[in-house]
User: Fold this.
Amino acid sequence: MPDVLTAVHEAVLGAVREWAGQPVAETPIKGGLSHRISRMDAADGQRWLLRILDPRVSAAGLGIPLDQEIANTLRAAEAGVGPRVLHRMPGALLLEYLDGATLDAPAVRALPGPVAAACRRLHAGPRFVNDFSVFRKLEEFLALCRAHGLRVPTGYEDSLPAAAEIGRALAADPLPAVPCHNDLLPENFIRCGADVKIVDYQLSGNNDPAFELGDIAAEADYDPDLTCQLSRAYFGEDSPRLEARVRLNLIMSNLTWTLWFSVHHGLLREQAAAADFDYEAEAADKFAQAVRDLDDPGFGRLIDDVRGSRPGFPTPRTTQETQGGLNDRADPGGRGRETTR
Assistant:
């Protein structure tokens, strides 16, 4: 374990045993790419999940501040979709152990209805304590890559004008922000009987619900038809505009999390090595998926559908300012390219 967390880990284990009033055994759970997760088995047969939050993750911009993550975890539990918080400690949470099956990509592809229902429960719950914008997050990651000379996939800067175009289209008729998880890779879904629960609120915040759906589709490799099926299951209607909104957010998910992996690889090398995970390869894969969708002849139709500018579409309700600085750049891709692979 990295030295920076050794003292915290030992103190937290002591606090858990004191809280439990009995011997407790720890079994680390592999798979997390940021924080330390363990199963805690008490002598009397009770079982809990311990989540120790690495402060370097939020310090590097790879997660929200730890106090916000803790607050949002509590609110997700209140919504009935997240695990109950049993005990809070400085920099750590002891959570209800969800006795269910951790989903993988094929399972998430097979369950668009239950997955959409879990999202609706989260989105209808208490608002989170912070807001989240995928466009702001992309800009933050890009600034970190430029400031530290971090490697990004070749051609990444060339995609920025398209990201700006997506931002303008989505901002023309925005959806109300709701409490979103914002990082719904398959392993963050746990199926417990008929219900699907959601864990790990490291990047949570109030956001466009269409990003939540697009992110799910990106992480579980949905094809366009299944992405539209997820949209219909969530919104309860067959709407080309909403379906296009979800599909454009799928692209933004891949573009933004490309940089998450680039930043993690560049700024948290020790942690990345300990995780035994190829962050650079994952960045390249996500960017390749984004390029695939940006180069698709149907990309322009998605923009038109979101704007309602194709024949048969009503005029959008409102016209608002774009979602941020990316959209204000006349030629973001022409400002020079950072070091690439």
